[in-house]
Amino acid sequence: MKCTSNMPILSVAVCLFLSGCASSGASFVDWFSAPEKHTPQTVDTTEKLEKPDTGIRYRAEPKELIAKQANDNNQPVAVYRAPNTLYQPSFSHKSLADYAEQLTMELVRNGRQLNTSSKVGIASFVNLDNSLTQTTILGNQLAEMLIVEVQSFGVQVIDFKTTSHIGVGASGDMVFSREAGRLSRQLELDYVLSGTLIRSEKGVRVNARIISTSSKVVVSSASLLVPDFVVRSLQPQYVLVGE
């Protein structure tokens, strides 16, 4: 493009400007258009971290291995089937001893007159009926367990079924007896622990009390329900039949 001398100054400037664009290789659009935005490229330099090996491995149980082996050999496998109800003695972690401990804690807490010098005798629990003389396996076993639990709290327990001598026999050495003639007639007891049993559909309600032997005043009492499945677990699973 040629520039003439009679052009105005502005025209000369435009002419020189365009001449410079032609010489530099840039176009008119390049000068007056908006600059392009260049997005910087990022390079991911982070490496994938491997999880540390804890050394914990899954170990199949024997029954799983047996089932897999039997499945490969097309053999039948004996599968455990859960019972209809989970309230079974063999599946419960709470026994009669736990209820005896709970009962003792309530009796000691409520018996403010009891101390380490108190002498307590523990008798069998009886059914709540018109005679108050019928006991059960639950009543006898509960009394035996209470001897251990009450003594563990520091209270003196007098075992009045202990005789004055040890009877040596072929079947064993005996020191306990329920015969009145072999037992001491005079007992130094301050209190007696016993109670009643009330049967219901849910179990057996145990009403325990500690009674003063001199005034017959109840110095402590407690009550709890022993579930039916625990009571049934005390019954023997077999019957001995004589010839």
TrEMBL record:
Sorted UniProt keywords: Signal
Q: Which InterPro entries match?
A: FlgO_dom (IPR041215)
The record's section on PROSITE patterns has:
PROKAR_LIPOPROTEIN
A Pfam family of the record is FlgO
Domain FlgO spans what residues? 101-229
Q: What is the protein's given name?
A: FlgO domain-containing protein
The answer, when asked if Signal is one of the entry's keywords, is yes
Lipid metabolism recorded as keyword: no
Signal peptide, first to last residue? 1-26
